[in-house]
Amino acid sequence: MAKVTDPAAVRRYVKEVRSEYETRLGELVGIPSVSMDPAHTADIRRCGDAAVELLKAFGARAELFESSGNPVVWGRFGAAPGAPTVTVYNHLDVQPADGPEWKRPPFSMQIEGGRYYGRGTTDDKGPALAALYAARYVTEAGLSINVDFLWELEEEIGSPNFESVLKKHAKQIATDSVVVSDTIWISRQRPAITAGLRGLLGATLRLETGSHDAHSGLTGGAARNPLTELSALIGELCDAKTGRCKIPGFYADAIPASKRELTSFGRSGFSIAGYKRAHGLKSLRQKTAPAVMRAIWAEPTFEVHGIVGGYSGPGIKTVVPPSAEAKISMRLVPDQTPADVFRKLRARVAKLNPDVVVSSESSLMPYRGVTEGPLADAAADAIRFGFGKAPALVREGGSIGAVVTMRDVLRCPVMFIGLSLPEHGYHAPNENFDWRQASGGIAAFVRYFELLSKQRARPAVTRAARRARPRAAAARR
Amino acid sequence: MAKVTDPAAVRRYVKEVRSEYETRLGELVGIPSVSMDPAHTADIRRCGDAAVELLKAFGARAELFESSGNPVVWGRFGAAPGAPTVTVYNHLDVQPADGPEWKRPPFSMQIEGGRYYGRGTTDDKGPALAALYAARYVTEAGLSINVDFLWELEEEIGSPNFESVLKKHAKQIATDSVVVSDTIWISRQRPAITAGLRGLLGATLRLETGSHDAHSGLTGGAARNPLTELSALIGELCDAKTGRCKIPGFYADAIPASKRELTSFGRSGFSIAGYKRAHGLKSLRQKTAPAVMRAIWAEPTFEVHGIVGGYSGPGIKTVVPPSAEAKISMRLVPDQTPADVFRKLRARVAKLNPDVVVSSESSLMPYRGVTEGPLADAAADAIRFGFGKAPALVREGGSIGAVVTMRDVLRCPVMFIGLSLPEHGYHAPNENFDWRQASGGIAAFVRYFELLSKQRARPAVTRAARRARPRAAAARR
Question: Can you tell me the distance from the alpha carbon of A389 to that of B396, in angstroms, rounded to the nearest whole number?
Fold first, then answer.
């Protein structure tokens, strides 16, 4: 098997497939698979069908698992019976891409000097394809490992149907471990492996005080103004300067990062200047790099994403709107849970402004990752092979609901080999990916699959037994 | 001249012109003269041209006065030299009409049982036409009075060019008094004459913390959130529950309403239930009618009209926006001035959040009306003639910048004969006007013009001398 990851052979393969990789990525990016917008339902379907065809064209068995929402793509590059199985998770749905900041058409991929511009290039179609090219390589090389693919089409809306799909097909898709390729390095100079994810609780605060726009000359002073009241409420739920949430008990279950973890953060290559540049931020709430890393990876948040209501056109229209809605979310850290935080939010709002209706939107559990043992070692080795440097262990400030779901339903460890960089612009205008990360990623996955092929498969019986365990206990592993 | 206002003759005339009035109103409403939206610039021009043609068709001399913004329509129904002159002021521009609450097309007038639905029917095209029909009647009857018309096309954006137009044509349009028909009764059961207007200071609060949308997973906790900061700022500028403005010194120059004035408010027919119904309000900040009337007529406000920035589509998009803008305004009462209040606002914001850029938008002085003397008596008499009931003296919570401008530039009293009702929905969806108010208005204006024809014209010399007075002194009359 030494031949499989012969560096020269892998390099040759990567070089050979570059043009094909770019064509395939362009095809996927060309499908505007925006899961958040019902107008794109047909595109989601089209993307799922295209993904199944792609997997088949690469030599895998593949099918669409239907759900009451979007389907899930599953594929298998099969090996001998008894060979270990690794499942690569990615998602093919994307964020909306609107707004004047887009310098190129978001759904028509542009290649500029090894950089791929378009919505979904880095989040998460580009990394999905990199793993696919690695799977084809090791399969054609005859490696004794089953490489499965799970490509979701609802990740950007919080994976509402993923769990039910996994449960329904649990036997067919049983695996020894999952590797997720949907995370981001801290710096191009230093690969990073994710050791934890924040959770998420999305919610809306809605206040209705009238039935239609009123004239502020006629009613101003007597009419309640829902925009003013929601603004004041937000000011009472969160300290806008520090970002500290003021909901009583909010931090009760938030476990602070350990000193050891904070030290490992420090090796990630994080710099305030680079971070500000990557995200287009003029200033930050914190002044030092350790404080910033703690805030974005290991502490919960309270965020306002939009306040809808009233007049938003040019100039000023002196209306008192009849209703307004604030779109908010809270990122959560272990051991906070969305359900508990939602209860606390609702109780606080009921006290501050009982007319405000609080509704929960997407909710995702925070995740604590695997940092020791053969899988963690294999991931670190693979990264070194693909990118020439040892990775730093960090956390991810974002949330991937599917991670917790896979751990709980498939009863197996979930690892991370991410290929994206801060400057790729996850969720931002002008999202991009690049060949350096794609080619390193293909090589890293080749190495990862090779290392896992040497680890023993868990007997199917054990897997079944694990599945039988009560959920709550499993969630505590 | 007794024949002119013979009640039976006026009744006959009003009955005869009804169908023509409705056709003419439909034509004016059919032109979407939205001054706030640059997309309607051509419609504004079309509306001005149509108004000139309309005045000419009625027998007046008429022309468009150009400005660096929208033109002003001027017309004269001339009488013998030396006859007194009264100028009727209305505006033909309208508020935007968007949103799903509109049950009928806003710019295609629908007549339903004596009610006229469409944007601009009551604010202010319907009242303008009522005065026009009265002018034609008294002119054809040979009454010795010049009736002039000033129809503005920038009232809804704060009359930015009205003053310069008046100054330029001051000699041509010199008049003995102005009557404004752009105010609203308190109740259909009791005519009301306006004895004061609130002023207005519109402003935007803009905060930019980044250059593009950031992902709240990647940056949440460290990135400043302009929506959260603006919300907190609003909470610190205004008590959302009571509506009380918290800017230091805001109330320093606000003269409280006198006991006598509050008593006259009480005779206006105001009821909390009717007021809530008319404006579609579920609840009010105050519990008693006197407190509500004081709040909407005689006290200043702090209002939020819209908060722009971030995500406003379906669901939640977990972005931290790079910037946000709050559209706010403050209604002002005598002796507050927009300039002084703006200074106080800016100073307070600079202290609370120095990164927020405060810009002033429209600004209008508050106005204290004429409540005694022959003009006030004529207006009350005219209302009794048109509607069969004596009017109550009230104030108007809204702002008409043109009023202060006319008083100062034309150096003459500005009176109010308003025809609109609360249920007509000024600035609201499904705006409407009705024949009862239009027909009563025609009769009232006929009577008003007759009474004024008996009052002596001010000699032109006096008018010129008054014009020569320094502005500040005149503003204190």
Answer: 73
